Amino acid sequence: MWWFQQGLSVLPVALVVWSAASFVFSYITAIVLHHVDPLVPYISDTGTIPPERCLFGIMLNISAFLGMATVYVRYKQVYALNPEKPKIIKLNKIGLTLGLMSCFGLCIIANFQKCILYYIHVVGACLTFGVGAIYMLVQTVLSYLMQPELHSKDVFWVRLTVLLWSCSSIVSMFISSVVLYSGRYGTDLVQKLHWDPREE
């Protein structure tokens, strides 16, 4: 039996594969219909104009549901393995709350497009990426506290590596967005989906 066929371990696999597919399919649709330029558009730009907006929204809503299911299963797993450790129980409840908030942020991103309600879209991104990074931090700390009885050091190091990679991606995205929307490259960039080669 394959590892992802055991129990509910198929949930995180489905979450990653489905989420990646939602970004790839909306990107391909936006490129084929010439709604965005093919060279590295914002993910949000590929889900702005119909029909890719509809595809983007539906697929990300399913990703949010898979994310909530994954977060809940992880919560129950940690609870079942550590029923009497108050520090782990408290961190686990915090993790559940943060994970569900992050998934709610993904629903906001899916349903409030960047070009229509920009600030709501940004709130959703902050919930998804910012609160999601804090969720990953909590899970990393839990992995550290649960070793060596329940987790190996390898699980802790893998989670720590993913956390650091995610945080560096968030910082890079934040800096790029601040530079882009600083006013140096023009106004009304939120609505802009195509770039003129003569522009900076």
Automatic annotation (TrEMBL):
Membrane topology according to the record: Multi-pass membrane protein
Family as reported in the entry's similarity comment: Belongs to the DRAM/TMEM150 family.
Domain CWH43-like N-terminal residues, every copy: 8-178
Key word Repeat present: no
Pfam short name (any one): Frag1
Protein name: DNA damage-regulated autophagy modulator protein 2
Location in the cell: Endomembrane system
Gene Ontology cellular component terms for the protein in this record: endomembrane system; lysosome
Entry-linked InterPro entries: CWH43_N (IPR019402), DRAM/TMEM150_Autophagy_Mod (IPR050911)
Signal peptide: none
Any single biological process term in GO: photoreceptor cell maintenance
Transmembrane parts of this sequence: 12-35, 55-73, 94-112, 118-145, 157-181
Keywords: Membrane, Transmembrane, Transmembrane helix
Parts forming coiled coils: none
